[in-house]
Automatic annotation (TrEMBL):
Coiled coil: none annotated. InterPro entries: Bact_response_regulator, CheY-like_superfamily, Nucleotide_cyclase, Sig_transdc_resp-reg_receiver. GO terms for biological process: phosphorelay signal transduction system. The keyword Hydrolase does not apply. This is Response regulator.
Length: 348
């Protein structure tokens, strides 16, 4: 069982949640608002924080941001509770750095299940990290890597918060004179299988790619059949250069794919336009990239990666931009004769 800090300003809600958690065997401490909660965490960090969103003074989002900005607390699991169930608030809850998000009213067992899930996920992440370390050199670098990891996650969280605070006018056509365009094939050569299973697999793969790309600051993420297009451009609100963000996004997505179903990615930099088509009858709108040289080349690079057994293929221009940050592998040419260069990872 876990040591849980419950931050909830509503007395009745706090009493119900506390009773359910104690009944499940957890050790529970309580705080009546965000300021008291942060003070309690810093005085004696729990194993998991359960925090209401709408509170007087410091909101639940601000509590999460404060924890993610603290190198000593950046990995502390947080579950947010709120009565707001629309997608905008759910996305805000998850992009703020929360590990899970429950809407009120919730059943007591749902809260207990959420705590068990986030703890199991953290334990699995820690085990995977430890298992990945082997040999004397890795052991010597473990402490330094952990410190740098906390610093990176803290800085990345601030970048994400800055991105989501900006307002973007919906439904507008946009053009970038120079942007990094990444095309990811999420399913590869699809074997015959149940259509429902394939649809669920595609949905899961696209959601994973969407989360990864937005995490690293993509300005647009568009479905492209079984593939996904992500557009990255310079962003003054994010101190991390766009070249490093797009490279990390590509490597992260490629490494996350299972060996039996690798993701293949093509990456090129150049001009691109995105148009919005509005449905006046139903009030919907969708976006699509305009065909052109950039889209043609990024498609050819992804096809070259798939045919060559690579994970990531980049153009010569992108390879030059990644000269100091990427580790390169083999070289080839696309069907159109353009150079294609394999990226195998980040420079240590």
């Amino acid at each position: 069982m876990a040591q849980v800090l419950l931050i909830e300003d509503d007395v009745a809600q706090r009493m119900i949640a506390s009773f359910a958690l104690r009944k499940a065997g957890h050790q529970v401490r309580e705080a009546a608002d965000g300021e008291q909660g942060l003070a309690a965490v810093r005085e004696s960090p729990p194993e998991v924080v359960v925090c209401d969103v709408m509170m007087p003074g410091i909101s639940g989002y601000e509590v999460v941001a404060a924890l993610r900005a603290d190198p000593g607390l950046v990995n502390l699991p947080v579950i947010l509770l709120t009565a707001m169930s629309d997608r905008e608030h759910m996305r805000q809850g998850m992009t703020s750095g929360a590990d899970d998000y429950l809407t009120k009213p919730y059943r007591p067992n749902e809260l207990c299940d959420a705590i068990a899930a986030v703890l199991a996920r953290r334990q699995a992440q820690q085990k995977a990290f430890i298992d990945s370390m082997s040999g004397m050199v890795e052991n010597a670098l473990e402490e330094q890597k952990e410190t740098l990891g906390r610093q990176y996650e803290s800085r990345l969280q601030r970048e994400i918060n800055a991105r989501w605070k900006r307002s973007v006018a919906p439904g507008a056509d946009v053009r970038y004179e120079h942007a990094f365009v990444l095309l990811a094939d999420l399913l590869g050569s699809t074997l015959q299988q149940d259509p429902n299973a394939l649809a669920e697999r595609l949905k899961h793969a696209q959601q994973s790619a969407l989360d990864t790309f937005y995490l690293f600051g993509a300005l647009h993420v568009l479905p492209y059949g079984g593939k996904v297009i992500a557009v990255f451009a310079g962003d003054a609100a994010m101190p991390t250069p766009v070249e490093l963000r797009v490279l990390r996004a590509a490597v992260t997505l490629a490494r996350a794919a299972p060996p039996e179903r690798p993701v293949t990615l093509g990456l090129h930099a150049g001009p691109i336009a995105i148009v919005t088509v509005n449905d006046g009858l139903h009030g919907d709108h969708g976006q699509a990239p305009v065909p052109g040289e950039t889209m043609n080349l990024v498609s050819a690079l992804e096809e070259t990666a798939a045919a060559s057994g690579w994970r990531i293929a980049v153009s010569r221009a992108v390879a030059a931009a990644f000269a100091e940050t990427a580790a390169f592998g083999r070289r080839s040419v696309t069907a159109g004769g353009e150079p294609a260069i394999e990226v195998v990872g980040l420079v240590p």
